[in-house]
Amino acid sequence: MNPEPYEIIGVESSPYSIKVRAVMRYRRLPHRWLCRMPQFYAPVQDVRPLLMPVVRFPDGSRHVDSTPIILALEELHPGGRRVQPDDPVLALFSLLIEDMADEWLTKSLFYFRFAHDADRAFAPAWVMDDSYPDIDQAALAEKAGAFLARQTARMATVGAVPDNASVLKATFDRVLAALEPFCALDRFLFGTRPSLADFGLFGQLRTLSTDPTPAAIMRATAPRTENWVRRLDDLSGVDGTWQATDTANAAVTALLSIVGDSYLPFLNANAAALENQQPDVSVALPAGHYRQAPFRYQAKCLAELRRAFAALSASDRERAAPLLRETGCLEHLATD
């Protein structure tokens, strides 16, 4: 008897929902896609924390948070289509880039989504139409307006405010600049098969490539990247291998530089603000000064990344150190 398939409850406009779905497609794991926003879907109201996506595993358990879900799949399905490279050093690089996409590039997504009139009109209607596909236009407009009000009220919490615009725009531009030459020549960041890092970038960039303002930027400056992102949505037909050495290509180096000079400094400042019970995270970054309220989940992110680095063997840490030092990551990961 075949086990029950996985069930993914999320919406197309959620970078984390489509990221998990893309991984399951690549891994050829039987699943059902239920296009609903969990917060408005009665059968999952008991799930805590109620985040997107909610994934029901074949054993009936429900899970949230895309990275732990994907890593759980690595353990449950240890076959040849895993998304973390076999080399522990490359796996660490992949995790760092994926976490940057999930927690830092997403701030750019949030900013663009609600900072301009065209995006404010487009995105809330998209989200609500996915969640309530059977309602009429008047009801859709009402729900979209309520959703817009809720989300814009959260912009300061996640740092997606005009005062941080230079940093958030620069992050998006730097990610595109890192990927565009690479996408024209290679397939994926760590070989001819996709990694966790590729899927993390996919989730954010697929959504950014749909919202009007960032889509126009991507099509003007990084059209090959947009095509690459579109392909990542379903890689079930792709077979490939991990790269033979731990030497990073230019795209990986550029992406790790964003991790080292912007994302990890923010995480450190956030952790310090929480420890010292400060009301604001305030940190000087290459693209400008960045400020937001401290966020406990992102303190957990820093702890997990440091734990992943510490878990490397001494020889693997030695192999990883030159690139981590060059990109500014090492000083934030090595705590001894």
Number of domains: 3
Order of helices and strands: EHEEEHHHHHHHHHHEEHHH
- The rounded Rg comes to 19 Å
Number of distinct helices: 14
Class by SSE composition = alpha+beta
Percent of residues in beta strands?
5-15%
Q: Give average pLDDT, whole number.
A: 95
Q: What is the tally of beta strands?
A: 6
Low-confidence residue ranges? none
Oligomer, anyone? single chain
Helix content: 55-70%
Q: How far from one another are the termini?
A: 51 Å
Largest sheet: 4 strands, mixed
Give the overall form: globular
Biggest sheet: strands side by side, in what order? 2-1-3-4
Summarize the model shown.
By secondary structure, this protein is of the alpha+beta class.
Provide a descriptive summary of the structure in words.
This protein has helices at residues 15-27, 66-76, 88-115, 117-131, 137-153, 155-158, 165-183, 196-208, 212-221, 223-232, 250-275, 296-310, 314-326, 330-333; strands at 6-10, 31-35, 54-56, 62-63, 281-285, 288-292. 59% of the residues lie in helices and 7% in strands. The chain is globular. The protein has 14 helices and six strands. It has three domains: 6-76, Glutaredoxin (3-Layer(aba) Sandwich), CATH 3.40.30; 88-112 and 161-333, no CATH class; 114-158, no CATH class. The mean pLDDT is 95. The protein is α+β, with helices and mostly antiparallel strands and 336 residues long. The strands form two sheets. It has a four-stranded mixed sheet, covered by helices on one side. A two-stranded antiparallel sheet has the order 5-6. The protein starts with 5 loop residues before the first strand and ends with a helix. A hairpin with a 5-residue loop joins strand 3 (54-56) and strand 4 (62-63).
